[in-house]
Fold these 2 entries.
Entry 1:
Amino acid sequence: MKALVYGGGQLARMMYLAGCPLGIHVRAVDVNKDQVINPISKTPAKVTLAEAVDDADVITVEFEHVPEHLLKLADETGKLKPGITAIRAGADRVKEKNLLASLDIPTSEFRVMSNVSELPEIVEQLGTPLVLKASRDGYDGYGQWRLKDKSDISELSLALSKLDLHTVPIIVEKMINFSREVSLVGVRSQTGEFAFYPLVENHHHEGQLHLTIAPAPQITENLQAQAENIFKKLAEELDYVGVLAVEFFQVEEQLLVNEIAPRVHNSGHWTMQGADTCQFENHLRAVCGLPLGSTELRSATAMVNIIGCGSFSRDMLAIPGCHIHWYGKTARAKRKLGHFNVSASDKATLSSRLLELQKHLPEESFPLLKSLAENLQ
Ligand code: ATP
Ligand code: MG
């Protein structure tokens, strides 16, 4: 089988690698150039986009910010999985929030702002503190602003006045005082079966995911059930096929949806070592119409993102259960260059392996690792 993936980053690369043993050939598309590329070498393939679209059995995405003409091209062939509505909802926070509201799914209270002059009134209605997010093209915390209290209004209004809010409105939402962030990665097959990985705990620094602990500590049946019910509601509404990620804020025993990602997700990378079938394989299985693989946990696993830090020795590979996944990208500040997966049969061993890993890495690039590892014990 042949799959065409819109987007040529690390997610397409890991889909390609997962496709090899299945006999599924994955090609990627650089969506900025409308060019078909090899997902590993990134070199142009010897086919046109039209030929690759025609040749593919299925077309999928590794990220949601795909230009509209490419989405339509894929949609018209009937091969696009997940479907265009799901991808558009993931790409546009206005659509995403409206979808959540229409399904009565708890999320932070919000307003859509299409003119900066509306800000004082919105602050009046929602109170403070607030988070403002560009409705499109934001990722890793880019395109976000914080408003602590009313005294920030004028300075923020000035900064936002440079943007065209009429074309790209801003979502203004209440800052949630959450106890932690968790996410659910799951998959729905073409015939409507579901498989879920356990809820995982995510740790961010400066708006970017740095660490995922799988499974999330202290997950009650109630929390897992809340997450799965929300996932099912969304996936059924969207007639979803493939892997979907739902990011949550936990407030006491309630989960509020932060956002959804209609694709494989950074908080699912731990599955490459920690689960029976990894998220990349399960996504390919689903979109290609194959039976889903077991999502059963193999061992507690921590995923540690390698961000901005391009050179270090590989001595940590001597740590039992420690694996590196390197994306082959040029190092740049804040750029995700790879990740470690560290597995162990119990949390105490996982903790000591992470502390060992931390000794091999510069603390400034892995600012959360030490204290998290200590707190796992
Ligand atoms: P990513 O691509 O990493 O998922 P993103 O740019 O899509 O990030 P969000 O997930 O919406 O943006 O926000 C990034 C982080 O900012 C969240 O994981 C959370 O830590 C914080 N954040 C966002 N919205 C809120 C909120 N309403 N209340 C509190 N914290 C928030
Ligand atoms: Mg997010």
Entry 2:
Amino acid sequence: MKRIAVFTSGGDAPGMNAHIRAVERVGEKRGLEVIGIIGGYSGMIAGHFEVLDRIRTANIIDRGGTVLKTSRCEEFLYPQGREAAARELKAHGIDGVIACGGDGTFRGAHALCLEHHIPIVGTPGTIDNDLSGTDYTIGYDTAVNTATEAIDKIRDTADSHGRLFFIEVMGRHAGFIAMDVGIASGAEFIAVPETITDVEVLYQRVLAQGLDKRTIVIVGEGDELGGATMLSNLINERYGLEARVAILGHIQRGGSPTVRDRVLGSRLGAAAVDALLEGHTDVMVGDMAGAITHVSLEQTWTFRKPVPPVIVELSSLLV
Ligand code: ADP
């Protein structure tokens, strides 16, 4: 193996730049040439490749987003798109690829691997933390810290006015962000996609807190009742309660990565280079209980990673 490529794809996540930097530095140390693919799968199809070096990857470790850019690429969903991408990879003499993204990125990488036999190692880059085979994903720690800081500010106004607030956090399919942020911000109720949200229980919590007091309800965007606005409307229709809604949205994706995300991104970058050199392919490198793991890409989305039961129990003990 002489030349490898790295790209970021799907939702951007803080820590991706630390990851890119590590791939370039460790690749160079192992005698490899490292190419950056600009703009995820769209860039792969269009042949947007550039050589990475120490200068290109200097002064990026503290930056959010991804210097390699990212995309959602419709064309890659079809065999013709993947064929065009494989052609470009072969034309550029790429012997192995590191794909940093979420489950969509991995589905694409798995298909590319099966159809065109290009060695690919995935690395978990998503704020959602919803990939099986790793305790944490790159970007998650920054996202929960950013969300908690924002909620602390909302709490000040909620407290001053004695208001009920529904605050929506990201997490399309999983309640990791909502659970950790809910516990960290001392929320009175946490609604996540993994559990059935009982509106009557929620109402009783609001009553117990006192109608003239601050009440914070954290809602994971993937909650089966449909997010913070829906939950607020339901409470209003059924019980006549007035509430404010705050949707944190993309603020959770941005910003300088935390130490944890910089270290995780760097560690998995180094491990991904070594995995390719050791002949691993169609796998994701992760970190479980402090050890590097290699799990098949398919496992990362077929096995649903549960929010740890101790965390769910803790959240109900703390209200
Ligand atoms: P994430 O990787 O953050 O989950 P997406 O779900 O948007 O983000 O996926 C990123 C890209 O991966 C998509 O835009 C598409 O190009 C590719 N992709 C997603 N799902 C598949 C699939 N089933 N087959 C092939 N490519 C896919």
